[in-house]
Amino acid sequence: MPRQAVTAGKKTGPDVCEIHYIDRERVQYVEKRMQANTVINNLAETFQVLGDPTRIKIIFALSQKELCVCDLAGLLGLSSSAVSHQLRVLRNMRLVKYRKEGRIAYYSLDDSHISRLFDEGLRHVKES
What we know:
- The protein is of the alpha+beta class.
- The protein folds into two domains: about 5-35, no CATH class; about 55-125, Orthogonal Bundle (Arc Repressor Mutant, subunit A).
- The chain is built from six helices and five strands; from the N terminus they run E-E-H-H-H-E-H-H-E-E-H.
- The protein has helices at about 25-35, 35-50, 55-65, 70-75, 80-90, 110-125; strands spanning about 5, 20, 65-70, 95-100, 105-110.
- It is elongated and about 65 Å long.
- The two termini are about 40 Å apart.
């Protein structure tokens, strides 16, 4: 299907098209695959939660080994209370899970998706 021209605005620059075209076929292709707003919002929330350096350190630590709150607190130089709060946030977003062994709760990443997401993000920033 041919592209349809749309009048161009006055903005110019390397990241702005000077002449705008609508490729209906491409737009329809993407439109059919666009995720529901609830999915998009949930993903945005997940990335927002991952935007905190302390939570990133926790995710990194848990990507290496299952750890309890006290071990995480010692590793990060934080109080157990502060680490518990961050773990609660991560648990509510289904990024980490825990298992109880007696009175100790051991935390790990929720599943391999989290590990892959974290590894890809880490690889991306290390390339710069």
